[in-house]
């Protein structure tokens, strides 16, 4: 009987461990495999670990039951089975995630390490589960074997389950030397490939925001005359850049456009060590990822690690001269080329005309040459990024006149103020990628271009450190001026926005707070209005928020 109960218990416990482990691995992957960042995330989401902690402690309190009669011992095991079953049910797969768990080679290696750690608990439990009992009879003593009649095997296996949130990041730490060695091999191979392309011209692009858009725009313009390669999607990490070089770079490529992202100090320097850019573009500097950067000064210095690298190589650094933080730093770089809408920039855009059909503007180059451009993109902020791409392309020798057609061809980058006409009575402005204060203001300005029922759907901004509440409050105030109806996603997350809207004197009857994006979109669909609905989707938080 003891052995049967043990097998049932072990199967349920192992199932629960797998389910809980998969969830924790998913969150760790979304946190970029960064153990410190994952630890901060766990602290922020500590409520989800209350039940495992309670069950972990409760199993010890139940030990006296196991020492009683066979009935109480059975109750002990059945109760623990119930605990494990509850854990399994709460963590069973089935939820459709925005970005599902990806079983990369790194993830598989980490899961193997995790499996070994769990196996240690089970092996010790099995070795301690076999008890020999000496029984005296009239014919002399004999030795009987009883399985799992002590509490220790059950406590060990239960502990393996409830300690899974700790064992998963521990697996990541154990694998760190191996992963570092693997990464270094791939990075060195990428460097070798680049060294075999001496005529390849490399340009790095970084910024708190706007870098992905700049990459797509620049690729469109340079492709009109050169054979170019760009890092795809958001491949802006060391391994993302390395994968692009090893997988996609060909000897026929003339330009490599490398997007460079950073969440911590010196990460741009690390990327420059891989891609070794000749030139660079810094699109913006602002309060992005302040939780990991700690201060705006660290953000500035990290972004300008690209400028330092380019300066040392004798190349040019193209800077958004309208950004106050960039403009203050620019005099340190005699190789800087400034672009923007304000006076004093080397490349300047003027006479901007914006409508819901697109944007027109005039570009003046450093030599005084001017050219009128038109594009399908909406808003003045897009003029800045396109102007930066024009400035760099013009610097390679392409005339302004030859750039007019490529500029017309530029399409919106997915999830960055992308206009999606759903037909009928509703159009979406998809700006769902990682919002920031500047981007939110620009998106609200674009929303204001439309003579329609203007609806905002947003969960707010994140990763803004100590300023997060203040900046979301200001976002709420600005939204109140621009929107006819506001839908907030997430009750706890959006409290500062809600307060900002209320502080602005907005009619709170026109504010709806949803628990999820699907509920928010259902509300928008059901919302009744005589006008056409223009729906701005501003930010879409990943599953770990």
Features:
Protein-Tyrosine Phosphatase, Chain A, 545 residues, alpha/beta, UDP-N-acetylmuramoyl-L-alanine:D-glutamate ligase, 6-stranded mixed sheet, 3 domains, 9-stranded mixed sheet
Show the helix and strand layout.
Elements: H1 2-30, H2 35-44, H3 50-61, H4 63-66, H5 70-90, H6 105-127, E1 130-135, E2 142-147, H7 152-162, H8 164-195, E3 201-206, H9 211-222, E4 228-230, H10 238-248, E5 255-259, H11 267-275, E6 279-282, H12 290-293, H13 296-303, H14 305-313, E7 317-320, H15 324-329, E8 336-340, E9 347-355, E10 358-364, E11 370-375, H16 380-395, H17 400-409, E12 418-421, E13 426-431, H18 437-447, E14 453-458, H19 468-482, E15 485-489, H20 495-503, E16 511-514, H21 517-526, E17 533-538
Parallel strand pairs: 3-5, 3-6, 4-5, 6-7, 7-8, 8-9, 13-17, 14-15, 14-17, 15-16
Antiparallel strand pairs: 1-2, 9-10, 10-11, 12-13
Helix pairs in contact: 1-5, 1-7, 1-8, 3-7, 6-7, 6-8, 8-10, 9-16, 18-19, 19-20
